[in-house]
Structure formats: structure tokens, C-alpha cells
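help with these C-alpha cells:
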Amino acid sequence: MSAWAWTLAVALGVGGGFGVGMGEAAEVVVYSARSHYGQEPAFEAFTKKTGIQIKSFGGDSGQLFERLKAEGDKTPADILISVDAGNLWNAARAGLLSRVDSPEIQANIPAHLRDPDHRWVGLTVRARTIMYNTRKVRPEELSTYEALGDPKWKGRLCLRTSSHIYNQSLLATMIKRQGEARTEITVRAWMANMPTLINSDTKILEAIAAGQCDVGLTNTYYLGRILAKDASFPVAPFWPNQQTSGAHVNISGAGVTAHARNRAEAFKLIEFLTSPEAQQMFADSNFEYPANPQAAVDPLIARWGKFKQDDTNVAAAGEFQAAATRLADRAGYK
């Protein structure tokens, strides 16, 4: 029980009933892997607007996936919110999610950030880009993900370990767009530069700032969090592949569970979470990019400028996840 976070005011009661009986208020039960664990301003706004209560459990994506599988049709969960499209793809493939057919959601969120089979939808966009030490690297020295394999970066590159889903999803999207052979050439070139492998985006940014390495790959919101506390932090993002495929993006997203008991309320919540109003709350709370282009980005990250996103459907992160793992192993990427 300690791994789970009760996040809104009303406790469910272990082993208690989760259904809505006569006279009880409408509710939605959410399993959320986002770090906010239910303390989402958008949840509170939804309840205030509709009167529908939200009860949220937190946990990492793997925990929530296994919990949904174990609970089967007895699950209290109506909605699964997970980080990385690869995790949502795996949940859908395991039969844990049902279709979310909503013209409103489709109008709110661009097609490349939604499941082609309508089982999940992106709520926030997470750009994974090149980060560089502003005291040691000039932006004009950078260009593409592939160019990080140039010998000039030998001993100067930090990467997250290949076991983490963020870089697996990056490689999976590369495979979808350009095939395994070209992607493997890129990864082998990265490995030839003897990168320092660190299993934390925040620690990669700290290593770049400290001069342990000069460039790396991380999600941008980690840098946003640091810069909000220390504007002098000597790391900046560079948007790669702007003349070709665009910068890699992933999502945190949501789907209605296969055995949702409060399906109508769950649909209403996801429709609200994709609206400009709720998307603005997401954008203002964690330095992520809103998935709905009608919402504005946070002023801090707006300073990084607009960039071209890779418009490969993020479902590729799950579809080619196994291939990405095998490729990394062949290339010696640990």
C-alpha cells in the first residue's frame, strides 16, 4: 500500500466497493503515472465544473500496468494515465484499454499524438532533444541526433541507459521513420564516441553543467524545472533535425480502461483534459508542451523558440519497442 498515493480527499477504503450506488456522487477513478499523482489542477477544475469527483491512485507505469492486469474486471480504475506512448501502447495491446471514440478529442489533439485505433490520447508533449553546455559548445556545432556520432563528440556525450523507455522510444521512432539499418548505424556511431551512460535525465543535465560531458539527450521539462530555480544553469536545448524529420516528441496520455464502471464520466474527463482550458493548466504546471496546439506554452520554455516536431505517430514507440531493444543490444548500447 505504501507505494500508492491517495491523492484526493476522499479515501476509497482498502477492499471497499468502488461502484456508485443510489444517492452517491458521480465519480471517476484514475490510475496515474504522472509525477503529480493526482494533484493536477485540471482534475480540481473538472470537479468544480461538473461535480464529478476524481479519486486518483499514483504509481509508476509498470506498477499500474501490473495492477490493472491483476485486477481484471474487478478493477476500480476507469482511466489509466501513463507516461510515454510505449507504455500506453503496451496497455492497449494487453487488452487493458477500450476505444475512446470522441470527435471532441480528435479535434483537440493532433493525429500523431493519438492512438490510430482510438484507445488512448496524448495529454502533454514531451520533447526529447539535444542539451548542451552553453560555456563549451556553440549551437552551430550541433545539427542532428545522428551527428552526435561525429568523432568530435568522442568522450563528450552523455546518454541515458538503453534500458529506459525514453531512449527506447526515441530509437523506436527512428526505426519507424528510417528503418533498422540506418538507425543501427547511428547508435553504433554514438557508442564509438564512448558516451557516459547515466540513468537519469536530471543527472545528465547536471553532468553537462559540471563539464563531465558537453552534450546529451533529455526531455526538456527536466531543464525547465532546473532553470525555474536557477536561471544561470549553463545548459540549453538545441532542436535537432529541423531540416528533415524534426525533433523527437513523446507524450503522457490517457485511456479509458476496458472494465471502466464510470465510462460516461471517464469520457467527460478525458474530453475536458484535452480542452484548451485544461491543457493550459498542464502547460503551466510542469514545463511540458500542451498536446492541444490552442494552449500556450509556459513563458520559460517559450524562450527556447518554436521547433518542428517529428510527426511520426507516437504509437511507433510501442510498435517498435522490442526492435529498438534488440538493436541497442547489437550495437553495444547498454
